[in-house]
Amino acid sequence: MLQHYVFIKYAPGTAAGHIDEFCSRLLGLRSSIAEIKHMEIGRDILRDQRSWDLILIMRFESVEELRTYQQHSAHQQLMQFNQPFVAEIGAVDFLD
Predict the structure, then answer these.
(1) CATH code for position 45
(2) Which residue of 26, 47, 58, 62 has the smallest Cβ count within 10 Å?
(3) What CA–CA distance (Å, rounded) separates 54 from 45?
(4) What is the C-alpha separation between 85 and 8, in angstroms, rounded?
(5) CA 75: distance to chain centroid?
């Protein structure tokens, strides 16, 4: 199983409503992209200087399924929706 972790830090002043909407739309991808085997979203509660605002944890059967997800039009549209508000983004992908 491939683990896909994405860390997002939003630009200062990004409205909580935008982040709520992004998370809602992200969870909605589960019904339209069959390759997603598991999805969790966590929002930071400590707000430390070193904290990221959001983590996305996903599981896929293979690297190919991850690539299919990343290239899916619904995923691409969601990234366009979120990108203007993102200050930093990071990812870690590994096999378990």
Answers:
(1) 3.30.70.100
(2) 47
(3) 10
(4) 10
(5) 10
Helix/strand/coil for 89: strand
pLDDT tens column, 36-88: 999 999 999 999 999 999 999 999 999 999 999 999 999 999 999 999 999 99
Distance CA 90, CA 81 (A): 18
Count of domains for the chain: 1
Phi, psi torsion values for 79, nearest 5 degrees: -65, -40
The count of C-alpha atoms lying within 13 angstroms of the C-alpha of 60, restricted to the half-sphere facing its C-beta, is 18
Distance of alpha carbon 64 from alpha carbon 60, whole angstroms = 9
pTM: predicted TM-score of the whole model, two decimal places: 0.94
How is residue 39 written in tokens? 């999805």
* Separation between Cα atoms, residue 55 and residue 41, nearest integer Å: 6
At residue 3, the pLDDT reads 99
Domain that holds residue 64: 2-95
Rg value, the chain, Cα: 13
